[in-house]
Amino acid sequence: MQATHFPLILTPLLFLAAMMGLAEGDKGADPAPGILFDTDMGNDVDDALALGLLLEAEKRGAARALLVVSSNPNPWAVPGIRAILRYYGREEVPVGACMAETGLAHGGFTEAMAGTSGLQPGGAPGAVALMRKVLHEQGDRSVRIVPTGFSTNLAALLASAPNHGGDGIPLSGRALVEKKVEFLSIMAGNYHDPNHAEFNVAQNVPAFKQVIEEWPTPVYMSGFEIGLQVHSRWEALKQALKPENPIRVGYEFYFRKELKEEKWDRPSWDQTAMLQAIYPESSHFDLSDPVRIEVSPEGKTTLKSDPPKDLPARRFLRFSAERTAEKVGVVLDDYYREP
Ligand SMILES: [Ca+2]
Q1: Which of 35, 90, 122, 177 has the smallest number of CB atoms closer than 10 Å to its CB?
Q2: What's the gap in Å between 61 CA and the centre of ligand 1?
Q3: How far is the CA of 11 from the centre of ligand 1 (A)?
Q4: Which DSSP string do the residues of 167-212 spell out, in sequence order?
Q5: 166 or 29, which is more confident
Q6: From the CA of 41, how far away is ligand 1's center (Å)?
Q7: How many domains, in total, are found in the chain?
Q8: CA pair distance 40, 95, nearest whole angstrom
Q9: What's residue 28's pLDDT?
Q10: How much is the mean pLDDT over the chain?
Q11: What is the whole-number distance in angstroms between the Cα of residue 299 and the centre of ligand 1?
């Protein structure tokens, strides 16, 4: 009797358990990680490709573009960013402007990109105010910040006081970062050559120094030497992107009018930091042990083997025999697509 009734009793229980399991699975299915992209769009075209990478990863369900802010004070940076977002169908992503007159402020190719949709400068809220608002709205330790320009906005965010500009957010910038940010994946510095004052650091040394010495979450650092080894190739981009795609418009403008180089391939500095942020577990890169970074007044970055005891780890990306620049190049090529 028991033998015949046992399954009858068990079947609804198993069914219930299965349903609960499904519901649990649904609840447990984490949303794609939210990315806050902080770019100096306009100074080099790799920022545009990094934004394309983010938007393609978003389409694949691997990331969510929460916010894009500019660390380039040029007024064409924001409309250039907006042109890419619009072309990729993500016009609703908020964009914040750099409110400090710090760092190189080229705007040639961003103006060309903005021209693809007739966008004009002006009207954007400040980067720090928007970063605070967006961080406040997100879950704890859920936001990944990807800076591929100057540390201007990050330093100002850290230094922002509770109720900054009357925003009603009771936390200081530092407390907000500690609460809401999972990690920083930053393209800045050179962790191979201590005599090189890398561009992103050198354009605002005090801000980078403050960020690397105070930022209260783990930090991945993609140094100059990493992106240098991974080239975006014009032959492949030309195949992948339509002539009217603002990323391609910007790319062509940058090489034809600004760089005036014969060969239209370019190191992928900013894309490496973005790739690490979206897929930190995918082992595209080898990671160093935790280090301390010493920043010289000119912006040279020297590695020290005594990591700060009171801060989460700072690790730099490396290539190895298994994790090569060639493999990363193949991965990136696959992300340059039409929306
Ligand atoms: Ca950049």
Answers
A1: 122
A2: 25
A3: 59
A4: ----S-HHHHHHHHEEEEEEE---SS-TT-B-HHHHTTHHHHHHHH
A5: 166
A6: 6
A7: 1
A8: 13
A9: 53
A10: 93
A11: 16
- Give the residue from 184, 236, 241 showing the smallest Cα distance to 56: 241
Q: How many CA atoms lie within 13 A of 104 on its CB side?
A: 15
Q: In this predicted model, which residue has the larger pLDDT, 266 or 16?
A: 266
176 or 10, higher pLDDT? 176
Cα distances (angstroms) measured from residue 159 to each of 36, 129, 154, 245, 309: 18, 12, 9, 38, 21
- Listed residues: CB within 5 A of ion ligand 1: 40, 47, 148-149, 270
| pLDDT value for 24 | 37
Q: What is the CATH number of the domain that holds 222?
A: 3.90.245.10
Å from CA of 16 to ligand 1 middle: 52
CA 169 to centroid of ligand 1, rounded, Å: 30
291: domain range? 32-335
* Mean pLDDT, range 126-152, rounded to an integer: 98
Alpha helices in the chain (DSSP H): 2-28, 46-59, 77-87, 108-115, 127-137, 152-159, 173-180, 199-202, 205-214, 224-227, 234-240, 246-253, 269-278, 325-335
Question: In this predicted structure, what is the pLDDT of residue 283?
Answer: 86
Backbone angles phi, psi at 175, to 5 degrees: -65, -35
How many angstroms is it from 42 CA to the middle of ligand 1?
8
Distance 17 CA to ligand 1 centre (A): 51
pLDDT for the residue numbered 112: 98
- Range name among 96-100, 161-165, 279-283 with the lowest pLDDT average: 279-283
pLDDT in tens, 211-259: 999 999 999 999 999 999 999 999 999 999 999 999 999 999 999 999 9
Distance 25 CA to ligand 1 centre (A): 39
pTM confidence score: 0.91
How far is the centre of ligand 1, averaged over its atoms, from the C-alpha of 43 (Å)?
Answer: 7
